[in-house]
Inverse folding.
């Protein structure tokens, strides 16, 4: 059974029988307004797969994309049963770099969300709200205030690195050397002509990079840029969805 909900900015698909949640990239989604809900569940559901799609790093800036990713990673759902897949039809090494940065920030953001029952769970939306209203009214205790300031500093540093990389159109050399995934762009000709780029960024089977700062397993996080060739039609978002489902199964 599939349920479709339209919010005026994009479509959100909840395919209950397969535990699949598809979130079409849009400006509305990136502000975290959909992050308060829970993925649909069924009696036989063993996990939930969330698909986030993006297609153009200029129209959909990497910071917008990763705020969407971070908000769905922080869903109120057992994290070891949650998998988030970013389908990048722009095949942008900058978007991949931004996702790597987000995976490190998530190790701090998810425990913070859980501890303080954060809403909305998009960092950008949350910080905008809390610093403009609630924080200035001294609503929170000293511990919350200190942790809020610490997580905001981490976010600001991440945002600065990503936006500098986006502006320059280049990934920092140290990031390229640190993560072997960037080697998949060696065969890259253009966003319309490249091999499949598939990278598992977070997975519970990786003992060195799978837990948050509290020792809790993080959701699985996967980057996918499907193969594209100029002589073959790629069918836009429908083609991206087909590639995600094919690679998932």
């Amino acid at each position: 059974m599939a349920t479709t909900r339209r919010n005026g900015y994009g479509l959100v698909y909840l395919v209950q029988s397969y535990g699949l949640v598809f979130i079409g990239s849009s400006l509305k989604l990136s502000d975290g307004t959909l992050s308060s809900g829970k993925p649909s569940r069924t009696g036989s559901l063993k996990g939930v797969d969330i698909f986030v799609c993006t297609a153009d790093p200029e129209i959909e800036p990497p910071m917008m994309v990763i705020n969407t990713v971070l908000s769905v990673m922080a869903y109120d759902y057992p994290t070891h049963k949650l998998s988030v897949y970013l389908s990048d039809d722009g095949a942008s090494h900058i978007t991949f770099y931004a996702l790597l940065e987000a995976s490190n920030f998530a190790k701090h953001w998810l425990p913070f969300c859980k501890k303080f029952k954060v809403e909305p769970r998009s960092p950008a939306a949350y910080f905008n709200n809390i610093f403009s209203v609630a924080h200035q009214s001294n609503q929170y205790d000293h511990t919350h205030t200190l942790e809020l300031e610490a997580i905001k500093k981490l976010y600001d540093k991440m945002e600065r690195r990503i936006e500098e990389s986006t502006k320059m159109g280049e990934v920092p050399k140290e990031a390229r050397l640190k993560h072997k995934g960037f080697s998949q762009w060696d065969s890259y000709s253009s966003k319309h002509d490249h091999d499949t780029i598939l990278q598992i960024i977070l997975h519970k089977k990786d003992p060195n990079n799978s837990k948050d700062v509290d020792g809790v397993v993080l959701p699985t996080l996967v980057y996918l840029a499907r193969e594209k060739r100029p002589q073959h039609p790629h069918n836009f978002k429908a083609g991206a969805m087909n590639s995600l489902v094919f690679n998932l199964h």
User: Anything to note?
Assistant: Confidence is low (pLDDT under 50) at residues 1-21, 24-44.
